[in-house]
């Protein structure tokens, strides 16, 4: 679920330093918009974006607070060198208000949209502008085709990805593993053997929680999506998310049952909280915390869970907690990676808007943002050396791995009535004991005609 891709702590000091350095290197220091340093060495990377001095481009997104500050710092040198002013606004009501603004004739120039389905809706209504040839070329140069298809509608490309998150992780305690003599599993079978070993020691190996207020159930949908990517081909996953095959297809039933071999196994869960049914009432924020209390050993959750650990917890390969890749079932099929992210799409096509859209797809921007901390991107020009946070570094390495096969969060690709409705609801019922086929039959019946 993309809405949870954002709770990330910010390195504000780094952002302030980045802003100060970029302003010194390339800014004019004057109140007017004259761009006297445009030809300086520091501004050389921005030569292709010149010619729009004094123009303004508005951007609207869900990214706000400290992260919004870092985002604005990341393009400060671009604005100083080109003279293009970027008017950024982040909102917690982004998805709902974007539709209102677009329908009211007050659309932003650019929006960072985290739901491919919303991009498709705006594109099909004729509201979005196709990306320029320059933006398309930049995106094709810097991003895998697996990503670009999510902002391509009817053969028309609308915008490059921006930030990303990786969901295919299992959190654990390196200290606990070392003390117990356990080895991080690299195959599905090894992970199940490890689970059996841990269960045999008297500890429930897995802890989980899917309670999330009005969105209760979403962590379970991530489990199903991750497992389906490991039991079937990426093409079958694509057919499932677009209703090319029924939601209750036998291959989906099989994937849900395989997920259930962990989530509905009383020997495996729910360490620190109780039995299987406690998963439905355990909040996703607290679900992994028993790892730090030696009450469970494994917790499958996205990279952004790094921000849920108690203050002072060291997140690193030699730290209190870290994560490993949720293993593939058949390694010969590559590394399936489930994740999410935002896409930079435009509602206007003025030259300065196209320039900003192209720049945001560049390696220069990806590295500028990464240097400020707390950033993951699938941009293959991103230098991993610029990514300081260990879990972010692991995420970037996984996204840049040529054997990785990326697929977007399935519930964000489905109609809202399903992806953010019956899928969540029926997964709660399933955790509480409902038959797999019956739960999937109910979701299939809810798919809009």
From TrEMBL:
Signal peptide: 1-25
Protein name: Carbohydrate ABC transporter substrate-binding protein, CUT1 family (TC 3.A.1.1.-)
Family to which the UniProt record says this protein belongs: Belongs to the bacterial solute-binding protein 1 family.
Transmembrane segments: none
SUPFAM superfamilies: Periplasmic binding protein-like II
Region (Disordered): 28-49
Domain of life: Bacteria
InterPro entries reported for this sequence: Bact_solute-bd_prot1, SBP
Key words, A-Z: Signal, Transport
């Amino acid at each position: 679920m993309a809405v949870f891709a954002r709770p990330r702590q910010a390195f504000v000091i780094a952002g302030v330093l980045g802003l100060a350095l970029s302003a010194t290197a390339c800014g004019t220091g004057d109140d007017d918009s004259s761009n006297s340093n445009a030809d300086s060495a520091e501004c050389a990377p921005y030569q292709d974006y010149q010619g729009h001095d004094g123009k303004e481009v508005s951007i609207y997104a869900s990214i706000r607070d400290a992260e919004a500050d870092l985002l604005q710092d990341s393009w400060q040198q671009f604005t100083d060198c080109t003279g293009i002013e970027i008017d950024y606004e982040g909102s917690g009501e982004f998805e709902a208000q974007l539709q209102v603004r677009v329908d009211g004739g007050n659309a932003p120039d650019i929006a960072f949209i985290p739901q491919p389905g919303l991009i498709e809706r705006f594109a099909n209504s004729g509201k979005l502008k196709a990306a320029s040839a320059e933006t398309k070329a930049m995106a094709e140069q810097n991003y895998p085709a697996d990503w670009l298809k999510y902002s391509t509608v009817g053969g028309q490309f609308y915008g490059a990805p921006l930030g990303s998150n990786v969901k295919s992780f299992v959190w654990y305690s390196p200290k606990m593993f070392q003390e117990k003599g356990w080895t991080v599993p690299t195959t599905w079978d090894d992970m199940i053997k490890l689970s059996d070993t841990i269960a045999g020691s008297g500890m429930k190996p897995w802890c989980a929680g899917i309670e999330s207020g009005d969105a209760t159930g979403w962590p379970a949908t991530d489990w199903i999506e991750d497992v389906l990517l490991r039991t079937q081909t990426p093409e079958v996953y694509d057919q499932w998310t677009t209703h090319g095959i029924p939601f209750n297809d036998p291959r989906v039933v099989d994937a849900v049952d395989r997920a259930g071999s962990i989530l509905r196994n009383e020997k495996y869960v729910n360490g620190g909280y109780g039995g299987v049914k406690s998963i439905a009432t355990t909040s996703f924020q607290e679900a992994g915390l028993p790892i730090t209390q030696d009450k469970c050993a494994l917790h499958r959750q996205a990279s952004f869970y790094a921000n849920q650990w108690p203050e002072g917890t060291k997140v690193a390969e030699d730290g209190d907690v870290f994560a490993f890749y949720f293993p593939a079932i058949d390694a010969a099929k590559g590394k399936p990676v489930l994740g999410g992210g935002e896409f930079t799409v435009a509602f206007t096509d003025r030259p300065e808007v196209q320039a900003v859209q192209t720049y945001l797809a560049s390696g220069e921007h990806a590295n500028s943002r990464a240097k400020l901390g707390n950033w993951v991107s699938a941009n293959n020009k991103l230098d991993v050396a610029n990514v300081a946070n260990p879990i972010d570094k692991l995420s970037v390495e996984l996204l840049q791995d040529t054997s990785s096969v990326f697929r977007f969060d399935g519930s964000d690709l489905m109609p809202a009535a399903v992806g953010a409705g019956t899928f969540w609801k029926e997964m709660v019922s399933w955790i509480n004991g409902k038959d797999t086929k019956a739960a999937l039959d109910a979701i299939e019946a809810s798919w809009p005609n």
